[in-house]
Amino acid sequence: MSWGLVGTPPKQPQNILPSIASAGLTKPVPAWFLETISLLVDEGSPVFTPTRLATCSWVQYHEAAMFPTNFIAIGDSTMGLNPIYGQGCSKIMVSLLLLDRMLREQQYDQSLSPLFAKQFFHELKTRTRGMWVSSKYEDYQRSTAGPSTGETRQNGKLVRWANRLVRQAARKDVKVARVLSSIGHVFALESALMRPGILLKILWAQITQSTSGKTELRLL
Ligand SMILES: Cc1cc2nc3c(=O)[nH]c(=O)nc-3n(C[C@H](O)[C@H](O)[C@H](O)COP(=O)(O)OP(=O)(O)OC[C@H]3O[C@@H](n4cnc5c(N)ncnc54)[C@H](O)[C@@H]3O)c2cc1C
């Protein structure tokens, strides 16, 4: 579970159970899970250690004109994201699966194509760019976030607004929730949200929410 988009991250042991409750889940958390957490909080003496993380970064290797043929970079060496969204392990798995597939497509008796690295980074960009854009612009909502060069925290309003619409719809519709989960785990690209059936569900959730007066259409 990541705390980036739901609930309030706990900062003290006594905040752990209230934080889970604040996650706004559509189904109640099973009692056994809460009992287990409660036991761990009481008996396990959890410790919170503030950590200063490196600045988020995206090395845009796909923009480079030339590479040594056998040069590859994966995982955090290409993109360092804010860990509160819990995307780092998905990102490294995507890199590995892509590299594995591309290597298997090579002829065993021939050396790597001179375009191997270029194609790898191009495909990696297609799969991971959404993570960067989405998490960066979500971060801009926090007063502690320092924007990228040439941007202000006002950038990305549309992305934040669209993200919010999709999350609202996912709470109501299991198909939207599945697509959102697949995108979060990089099993699908963001374009999956543009499928007519899913788009209609997102719009419908917004309309019904608007008529019940619970929504906020303002761009934040
Ligand atoms: C506090 C925190 C919480 C996180 N929480 C989550 C989470 O909940 N979910 C999630 O998916 N992701 C999370 N992440 C992100 C995730 O841990 C990383 O994205 C992921 O580990 C990246 O994997 P990697 O293999 O690219 O790099 P790493 O896991 O950093 O692996 C690189 C390895 O290379 C080694 N190394 C470095 N230099 C050299 C060298 N010169 N020679 C030999 N070895 C070297 C390092 O020691 C390290 O073992 C979190 C990150 C942090 C910091």
The main sheet orders its strands as: 1-2
Largest sheet: 2 strands, antiparallel
Helicity, as a percent range: 40-55%
Tell me the strand percentage band. Answer: under 5%
Overall strand count: 2
> If you compute it from the alpha carbons, what radius of gyration comes out, rounded to the nearest whole angstrom?
21 Å
In terms of structural class, how would the helical and strand content be classed?
Answer: mainly alpha
| Each distinct ligand | flavin-adenine dinucleotide
End-to-end separation in angstroms reads: 25 Å
Count of individual domains = 3
Q: How much is the average pLDDT?
A: 87
Low-confidence stretches: 215-220
Count of alpha and pi helical runs: 7
Shape: globular
Q: H/E element string?
A: HHEEHHHHH
Protein name: Squalene monooxygenase
Organism: Pterulicium gracile
Q: What's a quick, concise take on this entry?
A:
With 220 residues, the chain is mainly alpha-helical. It has helices at 16-21, 31-44, 88-104, 116-139, 157-172, 174-184, 196-211, and strands at residues 57-58, 79-80. A two-stranded antiparallel ribbon has the order 1-2.
Report what the structure shows.
The chain has 3 domains: about 1-50, no CATH class; about 55-140, no CATH class; about 155-210, no CATH class. It is built from 7 helices and 2 strands; from the N terminus they run ααββααααα. It has helices at about 15-20, 30-45, 90-105, 115-140, 155-170, 175-185, 195-210, and strands spanning about 55-60, 80. A two-stranded antiparallel sheet has the order 1-2. The two termini are about 25 Å apart. Mean pLDDT is about 85; it is low at about 215-220. The chain binds flavin-adenine dinucleotide. Flavin-adenine dinucleotide binds next to helix 3. This is Squalene monooxygenase. It comes from Pterulicium gracile.
